[in-house]
Amino acid sequence: MRAIVFDEFGGPEKLRLADIPTPMPQPNEVLIKLSCTSVNPVDWKVRKGLLNDRFPHAFPLIPGWDAAGTVAALGADVTDFVEGDKVYAYCRKPLIQWGTYAEYVTMAADMVAPMPANCDFAQAATVPLVGLTSWQCLFDAASLKGGQSVLIHAGAGGVGGYAIQFAKAAGARVITTASAANHDYVRELGADAVIDYRSENVAERVRAWAPEGVDVVFDTMGGDIQREGYTLLRKGGTLVSIITPPVPEEAEAHGVHGAYVFVEPNGRQLREIARLIETGQVKPPVYEEMPLEQAAEAQKRNETGHGRGKIVLRIS
Hints:
Mean pLDDT: 96
Order of helices and strands: EEEHEEEEEEHHEHEHEHEHEHEHEHE
Helix content: 25-40%
Number of strands: 17
Low-confidence stretches: none
Distance between the termini: 11 Å
Strand content: 25-35%
Structural class: alpha/beta
Shape: globular
Radius of gyration: 19 Å
């Protein structure tokens, strides 16, 4: 099969197109023939070696964890799918090596879900990693409920776009940060208030909107933005980060909770997300499509951190 691989950590020039053996599914796995994958910040972080102390890895390494395609083969113990089913999945495995910048990938069947019926492969490929990240942060870590308020940083990004929509679908009030060019976009996603982080004082705007503090701060930036987030929460609120784990002593000093999420594969949650997409409560983000062969350029553009929505790599 064709795949994008790299043989050592480094820059985007390390990525190369290769022909490698097609994997075979284990008894509990499905083999997915990929039509599309999408590019996420974690892809270039893996390529740079920034996560090699967190996860075991092996070379040659295929990056990418998002998958959208059709079931090509079934392990002996799999009964929930048949060949030809359209599926999507977040394909992170304990050993980081065989990712989704490839024509085929295997994944445990219980971590795979039917694609939303109203999505094509490109749209479905934008969902798994960022959708599960937003879901697990808001509902598993922060226990967000209807009537509560949430500050979501970088609402125009892949994670932020889903977080806005999930929060609104749950009945929460949403304030988000975005550049002026993306204000209309995040309002279309459901944001109740939008702050231009380049020209406005974020803390002042949040306090004017929620004088007693918001219930949840969703930190997608880290650093000073995370530290400021503690001061924008009501007592007993929760700051959840996908960048760096909150410091327990700092959270305690402000009378709030801190949580850190590194997204986990979850087929059940992908089915719930698919239901929200099928009912029109959630829309996949805008995306730009590029061929698999342009994976290096796609990662370079993703690394700038200022794009709207997602970049999709078309495989077949």
